[in-house]
């Protein structure tokens, strides 16, 4: 019988390298790289996903994406999410800063602020459908403050995106917060002490000690929020399905492909999204390299 | 003067913290309230009013039985268990090969995993869908399990980093005893990776428990619903019965609360480690 331990280590080496990498690489190629190739190929066709034949249509799909409002509407709505991510970062940074100093009930506050990012996305969607209902939670809270004629949060196309961004902010704030808190706590505490001796107040400490040392993670978060704001899917899809002017680019991609069977078009949309995300990531990587270079000087 | 200034700063600090807690919890607390209300009570009371009877579990029963939540929990548990075991084995195996051996394709493999992390998952589903179909996995648990099982660069990095600190002298002394590379992996490396495995199980596990996209796209069969898709199905038939929907939402959140309270430290570490890489 062939036993591994009977082989020389040289032969074993080959066996182990090949057998241990086979499955991971097979999965990576099948679900990581093949889809990308397919996506590029079908983006130039009118394939409906079912029939064995299709036609090459050149750049027609891409032209449609940027000229038909149904398709580019999602990009316009992503402005709301982009602005929302700045608000989110500011709030997360504020709480991370004050909770990195001595605060009574610190772990309680930390836990409560973080917990929403652990919740199932469908649950978050339903929680906020309930929250924004007419005469629901938000309206009751506002009524408590004497505001009796609130708008329809999820029906009014002018407000709906703000409501949805609010729900997303609630969900992702905690994650942002915990990352920043981790970054801030790695600042050596003797820096604060030295600054205090020099008469620096909390704002000075934030401005001149905390902010410079977390600059990298803040800039990464900001750059990533560009690609993040193009791709919202779960919360708007679960809450509104993209209706009343709340469509996002990913919702439209999913609908185009899986509801209307326009695989060629869907692939083209996926390619556009892919290129945006890759571009943003490349910018981010070069940005970080620059920063590292500057740090060394 | 300074004392006054610092007390007002402290007041402001705690005020904002309490406001933060209020906004984080209010949407959840009202759902909890509604989940204990009778249908009539729900329609007649304000959503900020606590329920009359905190032990009215009728809505939970309805959600469990009519909403098929039990099946959802069962399916999610099976998918989580199988894909986590597979994911950990695959992840540690490839990390072992990449960290302990130097061979020609090593750099290329690392680069392939690294570059794959740039591919936004939502976009490629259009074609992944076709591949899942072609493999005959559509509408089987195999689809979700296979897709969750594929390891990513974050997992590989965490394992490799941890393995950097496992001395190669251990391997060498085992080799003197005639142990095969497989024995070294399974008896020495894998057990010593336990802390890193715990971190990865938590990050991945939370991700799978909360995922909606994959079960929604690949397992539309009602018998294969996970907790996410079961809950999503509540939107239709229970559309006007918010008290039942709220109970279903709470059913899904309770395990999350328990996991969070029990594993807090690991969760914070896991999330920060996973993201900074």
UniProtKB/TrEMBL annotation, chain A:
Protein's cellular compartments: Cell membrane
Chain ranges of the ABC transmembrane type-1 domain: 78-284
Sorted UniProt keywords: Cell membrane, Membrane, Transmembrane, Transmembrane helix, Transport
Keyword Transmembrane: yes
Main location: membrane
Biological processes per GO annotation: transmembrane transport
Residues spanning the membrane: 12-34, 79-101, 113-132, 159-181, 217-239, 263-283
Pfam families: BPD_transp_1 (PF00528)
Gene3D superfamilies per the UniProt record, alphabetical: MetI-like (1.10.3720.10)
One GO CC annotation: plasma membrane
Membrane topology annotation: Multi-pass membrane protein
Matches recorded under InterPro entries: MetI-like, MetI-like_sf
Similarity field: Belongs to the binding-protein-dependent transport system permease family.
PANTHER family: BLR7065 PROTEIN, INTEGRAL MEMBRANE SUGAR TRANSPORT PROTEIN
Name of the protein in question: Sugar ABC transporter permease
Automatic annotation (TrEMBL), chain B:
Superkingdom: Bacteria
Family annotation (InterPro entries): MetI-like (IPR000515), MetI-like_sf (IPR035906)
Gene3D superfamilies from the UniProt entry: MetI-like
Single biological process term from Gene Ontology: transmembrane transport
Pfam families, A to Z: BPD_transp_1
Membrane-crossing residue ranges in chain numbering: 12-36, 77-98, 110-132, 144-163, 184-209, 242-263
ABC transmembrane type-1 domain: residues covered: 73-263
Protein localization: Cell membrane
Keyword Oxidoreductase applies: no
Organism per entry: Cohnella endophytica
Similarity comment: Belongs to the binding-protein-dependent transport system permease family.
Membrane topology: Multi-pass membrane protein
Protein name: Carbohydrate ABC transporter permease
């Amino acid at each position: 019988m062939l036993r591994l331990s009977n082989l020389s280590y040289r032969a074993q080496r080959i066996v182990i390298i090949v057998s241990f990498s086979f499955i991971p690489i097979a999965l990576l190629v099948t679900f990581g790289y093949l889809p990308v190739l397919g996506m590029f190929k079908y983006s130039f066709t009118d394939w409906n996903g079912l029939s064995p034949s299709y036609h090459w249509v050149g750049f027609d799909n891409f032209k449609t994406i940027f000229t038909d409002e149904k398709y580019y509407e999602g990009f316009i709505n992503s402005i709301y999410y982009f602005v929302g991510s700045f608000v989110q970062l500011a709030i997360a940074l504020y709480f991370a800063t004050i909770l990195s100093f001595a605060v009574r009930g610190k772990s309680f506050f930390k836990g409560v602020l973080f917990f929403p990012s652990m919740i199932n996305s469908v649950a978050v969607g339903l929680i906020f459908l309930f929250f924004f209902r007419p005469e629901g939670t938000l309206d009751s809270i506002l009524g408590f403050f004497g505001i009796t004629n609130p708008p329809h949060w999820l029906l009014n196309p002018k407000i709906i995106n703000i409501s949805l961004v609010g729900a997303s902010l609630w969900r992702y704030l905690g994650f942002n917060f915990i990352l920043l808190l981790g970054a801030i706590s790695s600042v050596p505490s003797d820096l604060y002490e030295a600054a205090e001796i020099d008469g620096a107040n909390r704002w000075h400490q934030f401005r001149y000690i905390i902010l410079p040392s977390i600059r990298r993670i803040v800039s990464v978060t900001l750059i990533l929020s560009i690609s993040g704001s193009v791709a919202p899917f779960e919360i708007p899809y679960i809450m509104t399905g993209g209706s009343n002017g709340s469509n996002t680019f990913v919702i439209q991609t999913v609908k185009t492909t899986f509801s209307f069977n326009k695989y060629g078009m869907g692939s083209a949309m996926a390619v556009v999204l892919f290129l945006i995300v890759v571009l943003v990531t490349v910018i981010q990587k070069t940005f970080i390299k620059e920063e590292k270079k500057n740090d060394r000087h | 003067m300074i004392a006054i200034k610092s007390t007002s700063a402290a007041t402001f600090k705690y005020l904002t913290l309490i406001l933060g807690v209020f906004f984080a919890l209010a949407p959840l607390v009202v759902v909890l309230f509604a989940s204990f209300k009778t249908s009539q009570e729900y329609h007649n009371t304000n959503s900020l009013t606590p329920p009359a009877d905190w032990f009215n579990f009728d809505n939970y029963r309805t959600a469990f039985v009519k909403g098929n939540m039990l099946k959802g929990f069962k399916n999610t548990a099976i998918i989580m268990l199988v894909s986590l075991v597979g994911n950990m084995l695959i992840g540690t195996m490839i990390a072992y090969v990449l960290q302990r051996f130097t061979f020609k394709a090593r750099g290329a493999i690392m680069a392939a995993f690294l570059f794959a992390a740039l591919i936004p998952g939502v976009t490629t589903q259009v074609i992944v869908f076709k591949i899942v179909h072609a493999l005959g996995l559509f509408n089987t648990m195999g689809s979700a399990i296979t897709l969750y099982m594929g390891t990513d660069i974050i997992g590989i990095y965490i394992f490799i980093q941890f393995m950097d600190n496992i001395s190669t002298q251990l391997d060498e002394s085992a080799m003197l005893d005639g142990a095969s590379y497989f024995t070294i992996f399974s008896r020495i490396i894998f057990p010593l990776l336990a802390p890193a495995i715990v971190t990865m199980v938590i990050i991945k596990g939370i991700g799978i428990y909360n995922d909606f996209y994959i079960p929604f796209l690949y397992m539309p069969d009602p018998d294969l619903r996970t907790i996410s898709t079961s809950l999503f199905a509540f939107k239709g038939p229970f559309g006007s019965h918010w008290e039942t929907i709220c109970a279903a939402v709470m059913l899904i959140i309770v395990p999350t609360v328990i996991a969070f309270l029990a594993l807090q430290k690991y969760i914070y570490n896991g999330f920060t480690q996973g993201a900074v890489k």
